[in-house]
Protein backbone atom coordinates (compact mmCIF):
# COMPACT_ATOMS: atom_id res chain seq x y z
CA UNK A 1 0.00 0.00 0.00
CA UNK A 2 1.15 3.53 -0.73
CA UNK A 3 3.55 5.19 1.69
CA UNK A 4 4.24 8.93 1.83
CA UNK A 5 6.68 10.95 3.94
CA UNK A 6 7.37 14.57 4.65
CA UNK A 7 10.36 15.88 6.58
CA UNK A 8 13.70 17.51 5.94
CA UNK A 9 16.05 16.98 3.02
CA UNK A 10 19.24 18.37 4.43
CA UNK A 11 22.91 19.05 4.04
CA UNK A 12 24.69 17.56 7.05
CA UNK A 13 28.12 17.99 8.56
CA UNK A 14 28.95 15.32 11.11
CA UNK A 15 31.90 15.00 13.48
CA UNK A 16 32.62 11.66 15.12
CA UNK A 17 35.54 10.68 17.37
CA UNK A 18 37.29 9.18 14.33
CA UNK A 19 36.30 11.40 11.42
CA UNK A 20 34.27 14.12 9.84
CA UNK A 21 31.87 14.20 6.90
CA UNK A 22 31.11 17.60 5.46
CA UNK A 23 28.13 18.53 3.30
CA UNK A 24 26.74 14.99 3.05
CA UNK A 25 23.13 14.18 2.10
CA UNK A 26 20.91 13.97 5.15
CA UNK A 27 17.62 15.07 6.61
CA UNK A 28 14.90 13.05 8.24
CA UNK A 29 12.99 12.51 5.00
CA UNK A 30 16.05 11.33 3.06
CA UNK A 31 17.01 8.67 5.60
CA UNK A 32 13.41 7.56 6.03
CA UNK A 33 12.77 7.20 2.32
CA UNK A 34 16.01 5.37 1.60
CA UNK A 35 15.33 2.91 4.43
CA UNK A 36 11.66 2.34 3.54
CA UNK A 37 12.47 1.82 -0.14
CA UNK A 38 13.78 -1.69 0.47
CA UNK A 39 10.26 -2.86 1.29
CA UNK A 40 7.89 -0.63 -0.64
CA UNK A 41 7.70 2.41 -2.95
CA UNK A 42 7.86 5.67 -1.01
CA UNK A 43 6.73 9.16 -2.00
CA UNK A 44 8.55 12.25 -0.74
CA UNK A 45 6.98 15.65 -0.07
CA UNK A 46 9.70 18.14 0.83
CA UNK A 47 11.50 21.26 -0.30
CA UNK A 48 15.13 22.14 -0.95
CA UNK A 49 16.84 25.41 -1.84
CA UNK A 50 18.90 26.47 -4.82
CA UNK A 51 22.03 25.41 -2.94
CA UNK A 52 21.04 21.71 -2.86
CA UNK A 53 23.89 19.85 -4.59
CA UNK A 54 23.00 18.02 -7.82
CA UNK A 55 25.04 15.10 -6.50
CA UNK A 56 22.60 14.74 -3.56
CA UNK A 57 19.72 14.38 -6.00
CA UNK A 58 21.63 11.69 -7.88
CA UNK A 59 22.13 9.82 -4.62
CA UNK A 60 18.43 9.92 -3.72
CA UNK A 61 17.50 8.91 -7.27
CA UNK A 62 19.75 5.88 -6.97
CA UNK A 63 17.18 4.28 -4.62
CA UNK A 64 14.81 2.46 -6.95
CA UNK A 65 11.59 2.88 -5.00
CA UNK A 66 11.93 6.54 -4.01
CA UNK A 67 9.57 8.88 -5.88
CA UNK A 68 10.75 12.51 -6.00
CA UNK A 69 7.74 14.03 -7.79
CA UNK A 70 6.84 15.88 -4.56
CA UNK A 71 10.30 17.36 -4.04
CA UNK A 72 10.15 21.10 -4.64
CA UNK A 73 13.23 23.15 -5.52
CA UNK A 74 13.08 26.80 -4.45
CA UNK A 75 15.96 28.52 -6.26
CA UNK A 76 16.05 31.59 -3.99
CA UNK A 77 15.88 29.66 -0.72
CA UNK A 78 18.36 27.76 1.41
CA UNK A 79 18.27 24.01 2.01
CA UNK A 80 17.87 22.78 5.61
CA UNK A 81 21.35 22.27 7.05
CA UNK A 82 22.42 20.55 10.23
CA UNK A 83 25.71 19.95 12.00
CA UNK A 84 26.29 17.53 14.85
CA UNK A 85 29.06 16.02 16.91
CA UNK A 86 29.19 12.61 18.63
CA UNK A 87 31.06 12.02 21.85
CA UNK A 88 33.42 9.11 22.46
CA UNK A 89 30.93 6.27 22.94
CA UNK A 90 28.70 7.48 20.05
CA UNK A 91 25.69 7.44 22.37
CA UNK A 92 25.63 11.15 22.93
CA UNK A 93 25.24 13.78 20.28
CA UNK A 94 25.31 17.53 20.39
CA UNK A 95 23.78 19.69 17.72
CA UNK A 96 26.29 22.28 16.49
CA UNK A 97 23.82 24.20 14.31
CA UNK A 98 20.41 23.89 12.68
CA UNK A 99 19.75 26.21 9.74
CA UNK A 100 16.07 25.80 8.99
CA UNK A 101 16.05 27.48 5.55
CA UNK A 102 13.03 26.25 3.55
CA UNK A 103 11.51 24.67 6.67
CA UNK A 104 10.62 28.19 7.87
CA UNK A 105 8.76 28.94 4.64
CA UNK A 106 5.41 27.69 3.28
CA UNK A 107 5.01 23.92 3.48
CA UNK A 108 5.74 22.00 0.27
CA UNK A 109 2.78 21.24 -2.01
CA UNK A 110 1.31 17.75 -2.18
CA UNK A 111 1.01 16.49 -5.79
CA UNK A 112 -2.50 15.50 -6.82
CA UNK A 113 -1.35 11.98 -7.69
CA UNK A 114 -0.17 11.42 -4.10
CA UNK A 115 -3.61 12.04 -2.58
CA UNK A 116 -4.44 8.33 -2.40
CA UNK A 117 -1.56 7.62 0.02
CA UNK A 118 -2.64 5.34 2.87
CA UNK A 119 0.41 5.15 5.11
CA UNK A 120 1.61 8.60 6.15
CA UNK A 121 4.85 9.28 7.96
CA UNK A 122 5.65 12.73 9.29
CA UNK A 123 9.41 12.62 9.74
CA UNK A 124 11.12 15.26 11.80
CA UNK A 125 10.26 18.79 10.74
CA UNK A 126 8.18 21.65 12.10
CA UNK A 127 4.90 20.24 13.53
CA UNK A 128 3.01 22.85 11.50
CA UNK A 129 4.47 21.39 8.29
CA UNK A 130 3.65 17.90 9.55
CA UNK A 131 0.01 18.88 10.23
CA UNK A 132 -0.24 20.51 6.79
CA UNK A 133 0.79 17.29 5.06
CA UNK A 134 -1.54 15.20 7.19
CA UNK A 135 -4.57 17.35 6.30
CA UNK A 136 -4.34 16.06 2.71
CA UNK A 137 -5.11 12.47 3.67
CA UNK A 138 -8.45 12.26 5.48
CA UNK A 139 -8.89 8.60 4.40
CA UNK A 140 -5.44 7.40 5.48
CA UNK A 141 -5.00 4.03 7.15
CA UNK A 142 -2.10 4.92 9.43
CA UNK A 143 -0.45 8.21 10.39
CA UNK A 144 2.75 8.19 12.42
CA UNK A 145 5.07 11.09 13.32
CA UNK A 146 8.55 11.57 14.71
CA UNK A 147 9.64 14.61 16.67
CA UNK A 148 12.70 15.95 18.45
CA UNK A 149 13.92 18.35 21.13
CA UNK A 150 13.97 21.45 18.91
CA UNK A 151 10.27 21.11 18.05
CA UNK A 152 9.26 20.26 21.62
CA UNK A 153 11.04 23.46 22.65
CA UNK A 154 9.85 25.90 20.01
CA UNK A 155 6.52 24.47 18.76
CA UNK A 156 5.06 22.49 21.65
CA UNK A 157 1.45 23.62 21.24
CA UNK A 158 1.44 22.74 17.51
CA UNK A 159 2.97 19.39 18.37
CA UNK A 160 0.34 18.67 21.02
CA UNK A 161 -2.42 19.57 18.57
CA UNK A 162 -0.85 17.23 15.97
CA UNK A 163 -0.78 14.39 18.51
CA UNK A 164 -4.59 14.43 18.60
CA UNK A 165 -4.64 13.41 14.91
CA UNK A 166 -2.02 10.67 14.95
CA UNK A 167 -2.13 6.89 15.25
CA UNK A 168 1.47 6.65 16.37
CA UNK A 169 4.41 8.70 17.62
CA UNK A 170 8.07 7.71 17.46
CA UNK A 171 10.55 9.53 19.65
CA UNK A 172 13.63 8.83 21.69
CA UNK A 173 13.90 8.42 25.42
CA UNK A 174 15.12 11.96 26.18
CA UNK A 175 12.41 13.47 23.99
CA UNK A 176 9.68 11.40 25.70
CA UNK A 177 10.98 12.69 29.03
CA UNK A 178 11.09 16.26 27.74
CA UNK A 179 7.56 16.09 26.34
CA UNK A 180 5.97 14.58 29.47
CA UNK A 181 8.32 15.56 32.29
CA UNK A 182 8.49 11.87 33.16
CA UNK A 183 11.66 9.76 33.37
CA UNK A 184 10.16 6.28 33.10
CA UNK A 185 9.69 5.58 29.36
CA UNK A 186 6.60 3.40 29.78
CA UNK A 187 4.86 5.94 31.98
CA UNK A 188 5.95 8.73 29.61
CA UNK A 189 4.52 6.78 26.66
CA UNK A 190 1.23 6.27 28.52
CA UNK A 191 0.98 10.01 29.07
CA UNK A 192 1.48 10.54 25.34
CA UNK A 193 -1.28 8.01 24.55
CA UNK A 194 -3.61 10.21 26.60
CA UNK A 195 -2.86 13.03 24.12
CA UNK A 196 -4.21 11.04 21.16
CA UNK A 197 -2.08 8.31 19.54
CA UNK A 198 -2.85 4.59 19.72
CA UNK A 199 0.82 3.72 20.12
CA UNK A 200 4.19 5.23 20.96
CA UNK A 201 7.64 3.83 20.24
CA UNK A 202 10.35 5.06 22.58
CA UNK A 203 13.86 4.51 21.19
CA UNK A 204 16.83 4.11 23.49
CA UNK A 205 19.71 3.92 21.00
CA UNK A 206 21.93 0.94 21.69
CA UNK A 207 19.43 -0.25 24.32
CA UNK A 208 16.65 -0.89 21.82
CA UNK A 209 13.07 0.30 21.77
CA UNK A 210 9.82 0.01 23.69
CA UNK A 211 6.39 -0.09 22.09
CA UNK A 212 3.48 1.06 24.23
CA UNK A 213 0.21 0.36 22.44
CA UNK A 214 -3.40 0.46 23.56
CA UNK A 215 -3.41 -3.35 23.10
CA UNK A 216 -0.14 -4.15 24.88
CA UNK A 217 3.52 -3.41 25.52
CA UNK A 218 6.50 -4.87 23.60
CA UNK A 219 10.25 -4.51 23.95
CA UNK A 220 12.99 -5.03 21.42
CA UNK A 221 16.77 -4.94 21.81
CA UNK A 222 18.98 -3.03 19.38
CA UNK A 223 20.98 -5.01 16.84
CA UNK A 224 24.17 -5.98 18.71
CA UNK A 225 26.70 -3.97 16.68
CA UNK A 226 30.40 -3.93 17.59
CA UNK A 227 31.70 -0.43 18.28
CA UNK A 228 34.15 -0.56 15.38
CA UNK A 229 31.21 -0.94 13.00
CA UNK A 230 29.47 2.18 14.29
CA UNK A 231 30.83 4.89 12.03
CA UNK A 232 28.06 7.52 12.19
CA UNK A 233 24.76 7.08 14.09
CA UNK A 234 23.12 9.98 12.20
CA UNK A 235 19.86 8.94 10.65
CA UNK A 236 19.42 5.86 12.81
CA UNK A 237 16.07 7.12 14.12
CA UNK A 238 14.78 8.03 10.68
CA UNK A 239 15.98 4.75 9.16
CA UNK A 240 14.32 2.89 12.01
CA UNK A 241 11.08 4.67 11.15
CA UNK A 242 11.57 3.92 7.44
CA UNK A 243 12.06 0.22 8.03
CA UNK A 244 9.12 0.20 10.42
CA UNK A 245 6.64 2.00 8.15
CA UNK A 246 8.01 0.24 5.05
CA UNK A 247 7.12 -3.10 6.60
CA UNK A 248 3.62 -1.99 7.62
CA UNK A 249 2.86 -0.42 4.23
CA UNK A 250 4.14 -3.51 2.41
CA UNK A 251 1.91 -5.82 4.46
CA UNK A 252 -1.11 -3.50 4.70
CA UNK A 253 -1.31 -4.18 8.44
CA UNK A 254 -1.71 -1.90 11.46
CA UNK A 255 -2.40 -4.23 14.43
CA UNK A 256 -0.29 -4.47 17.59
CA UNK A 257 1.58 -7.68 16.63
CA UNK A 258 2.41 -6.34 13.18
CA UNK A 259 3.70 -3.12 14.73
CA UNK A 260 5.88 -5.24 17.01
CA UNK A 261 7.32 -7.07 13.98
CA UNK A 262 7.77 -3.73 12.22
CA UNK A 263 10.03 -2.61 15.08
CA UNK A 264 12.42 -5.42 14.21
CA UNK A 265 12.60 -4.36 10.54
CA UNK A 266 13.28 -0.80 11.65
CA UNK A 267 16.03 -1.96 13.98
CA UNK A 268 17.74 -4.08 11.35
CA UNK A 269 17.68 -1.42 8.63
CA UNK A 270 18.97 1.25 11.05
CA UNK A 271 21.85 -1.06 11.95
CA UNK A 272 23.13 -0.68 8.37
CA UNK A 273 22.73 3.11 8.26
CA UNK A 274 25.16 3.64 11.13
CA UNK A 275 27.93 1.65 9.44
CA UNK A 276 28.90 4.60 7.25
CA UNK A 277 28.40 8.36 6.87
CA UNK A 278 25.25 9.67 5.25
CA UNK A 279 23.36 7.32 2.95
CA UNK A 280 26.51 5.50 1.85
CA UNK A 281 25.81 2.16 3.50
CA UNK A 282 22.17 2.06 2.44
CA UNK A 283 23.31 2.59 -1.14
CA UNK A 284 25.55 -0.46 -1.00
CA UNK A 285 23.17 -3.03 0.45
CA UNK A 286 20.39 -5.09 -1.09
CA UNK A 287 17.17 -6.55 0.25
CA UNK A 288 18.98 -9.88 0.60
CA UNK A 289 21.49 -8.30 3.03
CA UNK A 290 18.62 -6.99 5.13
CA UNK A 291 16.83 -10.36 5.13
CA UNK A 292 19.99 -12.13 6.21
CA UNK A 293 20.58 -9.72 9.08
CA UNK A 294 16.92 -10.04 10.07
CA UNK A 295 17.42 -13.79 10.46
CA UNK A 296 20.49 -13.22 12.65
CA UNK A 297 18.62 -10.67 14.72
CA UNK A 298 15.64 -12.99 15.23
CA UNK A 299 18.01 -15.71 16.43
CA UNK A 300 19.82 -13.30 18.77
CA UNK A 301 16.63 -11.84 20.23
CA UNK A 302 14.83 -15.17 20.71
CA UNK A 303 13.19 -15.69 24.09
CA UNK A 304 12.15 -19.19 25.25
P1 LIG B 1 18.42 11.04 13.50
O1 LIG B 1 19.88 10.73 13.70
O2 LIG B 1 17.62 9.88 13.04
O3 LIG B 1 17.83 11.75 14.68
O4 LIG B 1 18.33 12.09 12.30
C1 LIG B 1 19.35 12.91 11.91
C2 LIG B 1 18.92 13.67 10.66
O5 LIG B 1 17.86 14.55 10.99
C3 LIG B 1 20.04 14.48 10.07
O6 LIG B 1 20.28 14.04 8.76
C4 LIG B 1 19.55 15.94 10.11
O7 LIG B 1 19.73 16.61 8.90
C5 LIG B 1 18.09 15.84 10.45
N1 LIG B 1 17.67 16.79 11.49
C6 LIG B 1 18.40 17.27 12.52
N2 LIG B 1 17.68 18.12 13.27
C7 LIG B 1 16.45 18.17 12.70
C8 LIG B 1 15.24 18.89 13.00
N3 LIG B 1 15.14 19.71 14.07
N4 LIG B 1 14.17 18.67 12.20
C9 LIG B 1 14.25 17.85 11.15
N5 LIG B 1 15.35 17.16 10.80
C10 LIG B 1 16.43 17.32 11.56
**Strand percent estimate:** 25-35%
Q: Ligands in the structure?
A: adenosine monophosphate
Number of helices: 11
Q: Which percent range fits the helix content?
A: 25-40%
The coarse overall form would be globular
Derived from helix and strand composition plus strand pairing, the structural class reads: alpha/beta
Q: What is the helix/strand order?
A: EEEHEHEEEEHEHHEHHEEEHHHH
Q: Average pLDDT, to the nearest integer?
A: 96
> What are the low-pLDDT stretches, counting only 5+ consecutive residues below 50?
none
The CATH C-level class name: Alpha Beta
How many discrete domains? 1
Give me the Rg, rounded: 18 Å
How many DSSP-defined strands? Answer: 13
Instruction: Look up the CATH topology.
Output: UDP-N-acetylmuramoyl-L-alanine:D-glutamate ligase
Keywords:
304 residues, nine-stranded mixed sheet, four-stranded mixed sheet, binds adenosine monophosphate
Describe the structure.
The chain is α/β, with parallel strands linked by helices and 304 residues long. The protein has one domain: UDP-N-acetylmuramoyl-L-alanine:D-glutamate ligase, CATH 3.40.1190. Helix content is 37%, strand content 26%. It has 11 helices and 13 strands. The protein has helices spanning 28-36, 54-61, 127-134, 149-154, 156-163, 173-180, 185-194, 236-251, 256-273, 280-284, 287-301, and strands spanning 3-6, 10-16, 19-26, 42-49, 66-74, 80-86, 93-99, 119-122, 142-146, 168-172, 199-203, 209-213, 216-220. The strands form 2 sheets. Strands 5-4-1-8-9-10-11-12-13 form a 9-stranded mixed β-sheet, sandwiched between helices. It has a 4-stranded mixed β-sheet with strand order 3-2-6-7. Strand 12 (209-213) and strand 13 form a beta hairpin. Helix 3 runs parallel beside helix 5 and helix 8 (236-251) crosses helix 9. It starts with a strand and ends with a helix. The mean pLDDT is 96. The structure holds adenosine monophosphate. Adenosine monophosphate binds at residues 8, 10, 12, 26-28, 82, 98, 124-125, 148, 150, 234-238.
Amino acid sequence: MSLIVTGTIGIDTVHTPTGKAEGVPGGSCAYFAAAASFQTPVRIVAAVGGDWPAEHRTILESFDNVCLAGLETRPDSKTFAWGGRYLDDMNQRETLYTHLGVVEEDPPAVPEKYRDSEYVFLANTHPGVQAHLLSHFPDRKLAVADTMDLWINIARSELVSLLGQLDGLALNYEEAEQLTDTRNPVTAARKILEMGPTFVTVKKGEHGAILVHQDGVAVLPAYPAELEHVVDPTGAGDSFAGGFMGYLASTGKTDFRSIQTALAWGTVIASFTIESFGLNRLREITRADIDERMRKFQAAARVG
